[in-house]
Amino acid sequence: MSHRDLVDRVTAVEHFTAAPDSDKALAAGVRDYARHREGLRGCDGGVTLRLPERPGRYVRMDRWRGMTALLRSTHQRGHLHRLALVTALASAEHELAVSVGSMPAAVPLADASRVVLVRAEVDEEPDRFEMSFGALAGQCVTAEGYGGSELLRSVVDPRCYTGLLWWGTAEAHDRTLAGPGYRDRLSSLRSTARLTEHRAEPLRGA
What we know:
This protein has about 210 residues and is of the alpha+beta class. It has helices at about 5-10, 25-40, 65-75, 80-85, 125-140, 170-180, 180-190; strands spanning about 10-20, 45-50, 55-65, 90-105, 115-120, 145-155, 160-165, 195-200. It is about 35% helix and about 35% strand. Strands 1-3-2-8-5-7-6-4 form an eight-stranded antiparallel beta barrel, surrounded by four helices.
């Protein structure tokens, strides 16, 4: 990934947690919100992830061709109305991040069967964390069924990272995560940051 790509591409990351008994309505609202976002000028696409082990949790990621495009999107007709419909059903967290590393994708993230979502906070030595995440991704590349990976760093709080690893099939995901190589690399990554790891799946139609 070139330096220009890192400067000119930003990713908006939004975390939604459904209010009680609102999961079904939130899923529909997030789909509508995602379709609206991807139709806006300057959006290079995105993906919505659901966390099956944590019902009612969704993560929306939109990639934009620079900050100007992202800021303009918030002024588009209907944007705030659609966001209000979603946030009426859920609590929300919003982040802005840039990519600091990725592996060539054999499978587009939106078409993945299984995703590992990593959230990390680093107190020091961010280079060490980034290298350890790269080593974890490198371990996955050698396994059949690998889809791709990306590491995002917050531009608001540079201690915070969002990492993504994905697979084309559930079988490939399960096989990789059960292997000693993956577990060893994940253990090394945990030594570099406060880490949470979630299983995720793309929300179809979003």
